[in-house]
Amino acid sequence: MDRIDALEKRLHDLEDERDLRDLLTRYSIAADMGRNQDYVDLYTEDGAIDLTDMGLPRYQGPEALMEFISTLGMLSAITGSHHAVPTQFTIDGDDAVGEGYGFVINHEIDKGTFIINHANFSRWTFRRENGTWKIVERDVKLLGSTSATKLFAETLV
């Protein structure tokens, strides 16, 4: 690979990483602002969020994701803000995996304070469809849980 090809590949990889970080930002904002359809549209047609570690189901497909974000998802979003950082990405062509922390900060407006509602470790899988990155699945594990520890171990390999 010559220098120009190597630079083009590095630039393409950086643009992909930027686009994936932008996707996570849009995810958080859509969840927090009640933009339910925008939230669902960030997923592939078969996309899913797995919340079984939190005692909730795995929601898959547009209807299930809309049910989640319209009901349970919005309970924390009304007074909270989602954060999916820092996330480490592994990109392979039109597929990618992101692994990192996530948390929801809830605002106790009447007290003038903030609390972390929950902290988690998430593994995201992504697919580029028609030139746009989409979420295939978000697997959420609560920090401190056995399943989070297992996911950490897999990540460190």
Describe the structure in your own words.
39% of the residues lie in helices and 40% in strands. The chain has a single domain (3-155), classed as Nuclear Transport Factor 2, Chain: A (Roll), CATH 3.10.450. The chain starts with a helix and ends with a helix. The longest helix is centred in the first third of the chain and has 30 residues, at 3-32. Strand 1 and strand 2 form a beta hairpin. The model has no long low-confidence stretch (mean pLDDT 89). Strands 1, 2, 3, 4, 5, 6 and 7 form a 7-stranded mixed β-sheet that branches. With 157 residues, it is of the alpha+beta class. The chain has helices at 3-32, 36-41, 62-70, 72-77, 146-155, and strands at residues 43-50, 58-60, 80-83, 87-92, 95-108, 113-129, 132-142. The radius of gyration is 17 Å and the shape is globular. It has 5 helices and 7 strands.
| Helical coverage, percent range | 25-40%
What is the highest CATH level, the class?
Answer: Alpha Beta
Oligomer: single chain
Regions with little confidence, pLDDT below 50 for 5+ residues = none
| Termini Cα gap | 28 Å
What summary fits the major beta sheet?
A: 7 strands, mixed
Q: Based on Cα principal axes, name the global outline.
A: globular
Q: What is the CATH architecture assignment?
A: Roll
Keywords:
157 residues, alpha+beta, Nuclear Transport Factor 2, Chain: A, seven-stranded mixed sheet, 40% strand
